[in-house]
Amino acid sequence: MANNGWTPLTTQRNGLPDMAIMKEIESRPLAASAAVLVDYSSDSSESDSDPCCNGVHRTQSLTRASDPPPVSSTDSYRSLCTPQDGQDRDRDRPAAGIPLLPRSKASSAISTPPNGQWPIHIHVPLGQLPNHLTDLIDKLLEDVRQSISDLVSLVPWQSGSSNSSSQLHISLSRAGTWLPRAQLATCVAMIQADLAHQRPVQVQFGRVSHLINDTGSRRFVVLECTAGQVGLARWVRVVDQVLEKQLGRKPFYDKPRFHVSIGYVEVIAEDGSDPDGATRWDELMDRLTLKYGQQLTEFVLKLGRIEVRTGERVYNVDVAD
């Protein structure tokens, strides 16, 4: 049976991968034909005149007559997390079983976009996933909904979306990073040049967790990477070198927890306290990890493309194979 860009891992110890196998996964060579990522088409007629496009595949472009105004960092981040048609949009109904996280007045404020600057987000798209893995994620989300009825799914196959912004991805930069438009071409070019000599990364998920975004407005259900962190950290260092050292922007987290977000709930409470909320969420995630963790580790995804999203434009950066 064709592996379709993923590799079954059958040798386990105590429900987790053998560490020797984990090391072997990191070091084994990769074939170009095994890439998991979707190859988006680029517009060569526009790339010749766009300084951001030198050596980089652009997947989406703006009209050449005029560019839209920058959007707020909150809207930019939420564009990756907007509920799809047919999903529950009722924000006032409390989640069943698990309490909502209280939101402070400070975290509920919408930030004002810096004048003349554009949002930029750098991430690794997972691309097309094997059917067995998507089925497993569907079952996991359904299990989550037994305790969290207001969960909003982020998986594109449940909504039939083919938009690149709705893809599952692993972030390499913080949401809400802004750059002057004049620096966008420089940023994309430097990231492309510095990543060109990196190697593809093989990742594996084995833990279900919950994380809260920087604004405290949403709690996400995520699949955490249990293999491939070293390779992803190398990519983050490249991105940080450009964003922080060269352009003076905030670096990625000191101790990153590389993950894919598969669902979220809104934080709608304006005041009050919830001392045992986090503990109850932890217990739910631990139960899901025990139930699904070992099955998740059977899939090893080989990733070799980074997306740089600036406003409504997306540039693909392929690492060396």
From TrEMBL:
Which segments carry the region annotation Disordered?
41-114
* Molecular functions (GO terms): 3'-5'-RNA exonuclease activity; lyase activity
Give a Pfam family name.
HVSL
Cite the InterPro entries for this sequence. Answer: Usb1 (IPR027521)
Keywords, ordered alphabetically: Hydrolase, Lyase, Nuclease, Nucleus
GO cellular component, alphabetical, reads:
nucleus
Any single biological process term in GO:
U6 snRNA 3'-end processing
- Polar residues bias: start-end ranges: 72-82, 105-114
| Domain of life according to the entry | Eukaryota
Recorded protein name is U6 snRNA phosphodiesterase 1
This protein's species is Catenaria anguillulae PL171
